Amino acid sequence: MPPYLRIVNLIRTDISEGRLAPGDLLPSESELMRRHSVCRGTVRRAIAVLCRDGAIHTIHPEGSYVGSRSVPRRRLPRKYDLVAADLRQQIDSGRLPPGDRLPTEAELAKHYRVSQSTVQAAVALLRADHLVFTVLGRGVFVVDCRH
C-alpha cells in the first residue's frame, strides 16, 4: 500500500474510533511527516485525498480539521492567534486608531517574541476580518470603519 494511503487509512480510523472528533485540528504536516517517516509531498497527498472525500477540510494558515467547514473548529490557540487577538483588542480599544500604521513585522516579532512568519499569520487573520489592509511598500494600516 502506498504510504499516503496508509496515512489516509490511519486518519480515517482515528476519526471512526473517536480519537479525532468533528472540528478537531489534525496534526501539522511536519508532525505527520515525523510520525510516519514520510516526506511533505506524501502527507499533502494524503490530506488532499481526505479533503476530496469530505472527511476533512483545510483552512490556511490554520491547518486541516475533521469534518466539513460547517462544523465548529476545536483547537488550542496558536501564537499567531494570541498576537492577532492582542492587536484586535488594541484596534477595538482605539490604541491603534483607524488609519494608523501597525509596527513593522520585525518590530512586532520582537515585541511579541515570535517569528516574523507568526506575525504574518496574525496580520493575515486581521486582514481576513477586514480590520487592516496593506499598502505595498508602506505598511499595514488599520481600516477606517467609518467609511
TrEMBL record:
<dbReference type="GO" id="GO:0045892">
    <property type="term" value="P:negative regulation of DNA-templated transcription"/>
</dbReference>
<keyword id="KW-0805">Transcription regulation</keyword>
<protein>
    <recommendedName>
        <fullName>HTH gntR-type domain-containing protein</fullName>
    </recommendedName>
</protein>
<feature type="domain" description="HTH gntR-type">
    <location>
        <begin position="77"/>
        <end position="145"/>
    </location>
</feature>
<dbReference type="InterPro" id="IPR000524">
    <property type="entry name" value="Tscrpt_reg_HTH_GntR"/>
</dbReference>
<dbReference type="Pfam" id="PF00392">
    <property type="entry name" value="GntR"/>
</dbReference>
<feature type="domain" description="HTH gntR-type">
    <location>
        <begin position="1"/>
        <end position="69"/>
    </location>
</feature>
<keyword id="KW-0238">DNA-binding</keyword>
<dbReference type="InterPro" id="IPR036390">
    <property type="entry name" value="WH_DNA-bd_sf"/>
</dbReference>
<dbReference type="GO" id="GO:0003677">
    <property type="term" value="F:DNA binding"/>
</dbReference>
<dbReference type="InterPro" id="IPR036388">
    <property type="entry name" value="WH-like_DNA-bd_sf"/>
</dbReference>
<dbReference type="GO" id="GO:0003700">
    <property type="term" value="F:DNA-binding transcription factor activity"/>
</dbReference>
<keyword id="KW-0804">Transcription</keyword>
<dbReference type="InterPro" id="IPR050679">
    <property type="entry name" value="Bact_HTH_transcr_reg"/>
</dbReference>
